[in-house]
Amino acid sequence: MNRTAAATRGMSEAEVLALPVSVPLELANRALGIGRTRGYQRAKSGTYPIAVMRHGVAYRCRRADILNYLGITSRDTAASLA
Description:
55% of the residues lie in helices and 13% in strands. It has helices at 3-8, 13-17, 25-32, 36-45, 63-70, 74-81; strands spanning 22-24, 53-55, 58-62. The chain starts with a helix and ends with a helix.
């Protein structure tokens, strides 16, 4: 199963495109098709598939990193917003 197929189980492409610039780790987990516990384990160990920013006790991820990981290009993004 490819990454995009795994991600669509938790969030549609339209939902991913509608994400704000920065999202909480739980929302990134859903977009990437990663379970809550596994996502936090990987974030803490530094093995999360995209960059994770830590703000105090909260973890956040950038929308651009999610789109890049899922293979959604800027051309796809522009077409879907038109």
